[in-house]
């Protein structure tokens, strides 16, 4: 009996030792699983956060780039009109001998060409304002800093002053100042004042969401010129220099362009901000995307993934705990066979319940999950089947080739993902997958290797996110009102047209249109009527050209039509058709009929003629898209001066040819 007792005691001791070893193994296993899940969640969320940060920075950089181009274009247009005005003054006898009435008429005419400009004034060498548009009483500006800078300047570059208070209107303005010189001597200044509200109004045309922000500041001292942040809140005072330290550090590293994240002192919002120096002018434009709003989807994703991982770990921990309790019950069975059977049955039922709960977790409705062997489905959850529109069990044993829209997408996944999995690393990529009804979705796949031929994947439908990204891409390159290409897309398409091979007789024509009489319609009937008129004219012009040609709106009532390559007679006929539809009456939504005309400037790029040496003085020179656009702009201004309602070909330059790459 003692032997039986010793044997029984030895068996009990061995069972107790085995139970302690099992406990250590279960604890270490749970810790390992927890660390693995934590690392997986951290990796997924970190990758997603970096993606959102990159998208926020890209969006801010696109907004800053577009604003920089628009502001530089408007200031350059003001400077161009001022240069043309000074040239006209010189041809008519100079500022010293020209009759005052004639000078006043000229300034009034030029002021009407400039959008957003308050006044255009001419002062003599003693700082007396002799002429101005609008007309003014004789005043002196020789004590103003911008006048003294103009006297001291020796170059031909226009000066920019401000922001400062206008002595006439009392509003905050920027001043574009050009020194007047006669025979090399300083003879006065011609200066234009632009209200800073014009730039804030310009920012209102951009696709800004609540608490995003656009700002324009001076270079160097960073004085505020204009700022717009939809959704209320502090907008900032004009002239203030209050900025964040990250902004100053970024400008010190690269004054021309860059991006940073900071809390804005003006309103306390944290934004991802990009900046661009305005080309040719001492200004910097800033575009900020509100992080609180933009990262909200990422925070929701972080919560969802963390909850799923925590639930998975909790169920696994509960399952291992059940296993340990089962071992305890097994030890108790040494004392009572009946009790052992009952406890075993209860433990098995508990394990079955836990496995059912774990299965319910894997078959969640949030994240699709699949298991593959040699790229064939061996397991999938309900969320994956529902995402692609399949019923329960329809995907069993299917090859992944059937779920991609074409062979190229299937091969791309194999080429980009499986070499990474073969190294034991996780991989993530976005692919197109085909639903049961034939439609395609964009799916974010995150895979991890299991064995040499098996892998586990998590799948999330990101079609809505991709569509939002494409919408933002479209808005960055198209005019908000007319949906025509904007200046940035115009320059890209013009470069493409110039790069195409052309026959010797073919040309590319750049037609710069400015509507005659549009301002009168806008003033008389209101901005809504003016907008409706612009939309109808845009449709008419687009209907007269080929798909390979371009009709773009670059601001206000100005359009650019790029025709070609095509024979010279052909583009002239197309331009006549475009001008004809512009001149036709337009019926507005309220039944009123209006009519406008167009003044057109045309610059032409021709192909190199065969048989002419490259060093021949008569050979055409290569011109850039920006030069062609500038020449067409000058020709349009000349057409307006000649009486409007006509078109004029750019002249005064040798034959031109565009680079064909």
Structure commentary:
This protein is of the alpha+beta class. 46% of the residues lie in helices and 25% in strands. β14 (440-449) and β15 (454-461) form a beta hairpin. α7 runs antiparallel to α8 (337-362) and α14 (518-525) runs antiparallel to α15. The chain starts with a helix and ends with a strand. Residues 608-618 and 652-661 have low confidence and may be disordered.
Give the oligomer, counting copies of the same chain as homo and different chains as hetero.
single chain
Low-pLDDT ranges: 608-618, 652-661
pLDDT averaged over residues: 83
Number of helices: 17
In helices, the fraction of residues equals: 40-55%
Strand order of the largest sheet: 2-1-5-4-3
Distance between the termini: 104 Å
Using DSSP, what is the number of strands? 24
């Amino acid at each position: 009996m003692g032997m039986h007792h010793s044997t029984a005691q030895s068996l009990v001791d061995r069972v107790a030792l085995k139970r302690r070893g099992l406990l250590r193994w279960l604890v270490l296993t749970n810790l390992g699983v927890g660390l693995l899940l934590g690392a997986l969640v951290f990796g997924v969320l970190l990758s997603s956060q970096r993606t959102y940060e990159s998208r926020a920075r890209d969006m801010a950089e696109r907004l800053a780039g577009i604003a920089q181009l628009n502001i530089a274009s408007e200031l350059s247009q003001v400077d161009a009109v001022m240069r043309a005005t000074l040239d006209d003054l010189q041809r008519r006898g100079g500022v010293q001998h020209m009759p005052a009435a004639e000078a006043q008429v000229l300034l009034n005419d030029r002021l009407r060409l400039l959008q957003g400009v308050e006044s255009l004034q001419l002062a003599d060498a003693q700082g007396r304002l002799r002429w101005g548009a609008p007309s003014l009483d004789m005043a002196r500006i020789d004590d103003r800093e911008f006048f003294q800078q103009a006297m001291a300047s020796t170059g031909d570059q226009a000066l920019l002053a401000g922001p400062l208070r206008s002595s006439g209107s009392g509003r905050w303005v920027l001043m574009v100042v050009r020194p007047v010189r006669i025979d090399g001597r300083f003879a006065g200044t011609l200066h234009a004042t632009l209200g800073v509200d014009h730039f804030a109004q310009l920012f209102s045309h951009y696709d800004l969401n609540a608490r995003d922000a656009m700002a324009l500041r001076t270079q160097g001292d960073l004085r505020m010129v204009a700022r717009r942040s939809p959704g209320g809140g502090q907008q900032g005072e004009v002239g203030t220099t209050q900025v964040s330290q990250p902004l100053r550090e970024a400008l010190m590293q690269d004054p021309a362009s860059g991006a940073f994240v900071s809390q804005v002192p003006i309103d306390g919002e944290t934004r991802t901000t990009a900046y661009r120096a305005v080309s040719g002018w001492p200004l910097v434009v800033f575009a900020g995307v509100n992080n609180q709003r933009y990262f909200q989807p990422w925070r929701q994703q972080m919560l969802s993934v963390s909850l799923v991982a925590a639930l998975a770990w909790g169920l696994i921990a509960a399952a291992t705990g059940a296993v340990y309790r089962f071992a305890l019950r097994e030890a108790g069975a040494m004392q009572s066979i009946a009790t052992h059977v009952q406890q075993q049955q209860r433990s098995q039922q508990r394990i079955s319940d836990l496995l059912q709960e774990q299965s319910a977790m894997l078959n969640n409705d949030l994240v699709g999950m699949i298991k593959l062997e040699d790229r064939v489905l061996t397991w999938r959850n309900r969320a994956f089947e529902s995402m692609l529109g399949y019923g329960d069990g329809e995907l069993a044993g299917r090859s992944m080739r059937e779920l991609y829209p074409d062979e190229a997408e299937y091969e791309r996944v194999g080429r980009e993902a499986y070499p990474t999995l073969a190294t034991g690393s996780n991989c993530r990529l976005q692919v197109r997958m085909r639903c049961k009804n034939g439609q395609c979705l964009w799916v974010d796949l995150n895979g991890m290797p299991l064995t040499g031929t098996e892998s586990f994947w998590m799948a999330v439908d990101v079609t809505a996110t991709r569509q939002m990204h494409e919408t933002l891409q479209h808005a960055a390159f198209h005019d908000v009102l007319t949906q025509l290409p904007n200046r940035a897309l115009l320059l890209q398409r013009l470069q493409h047209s110039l790069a195409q091979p052309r026959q010797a007789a073919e040309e590319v024509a750049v037609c710069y249109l400015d509507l005659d009489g549009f301002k009168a319609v806008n003033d008389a009937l209101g901005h809504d009527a003016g907008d409706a008129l612009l939309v109808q004219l845009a449709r008419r012009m687009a209907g007269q050209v080929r798909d390979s040609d371009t009709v773009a709106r670059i601001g206000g009532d100005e359009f650019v039509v790029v025709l070609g390559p095509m024979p010279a007679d052909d583009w002239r006929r197309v331009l006549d058709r475009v001008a004809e539809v512009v001149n036709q009456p337009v019926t507005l939504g309220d039944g009123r009929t209006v009519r406008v005309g167009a003044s057109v400037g045309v610059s032409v790029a021709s192909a190199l003629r065969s048989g002419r040496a490259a060093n021949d003085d008569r050979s055409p020179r290569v011109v850039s898209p920006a030069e062609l656009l500038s020449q067409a702009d000058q020709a349009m201004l000349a057409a307006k001066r000649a009486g409007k309602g006509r078109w004029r070909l750019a002249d005064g330059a040798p034959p031109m040819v565009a680079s064909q790459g």
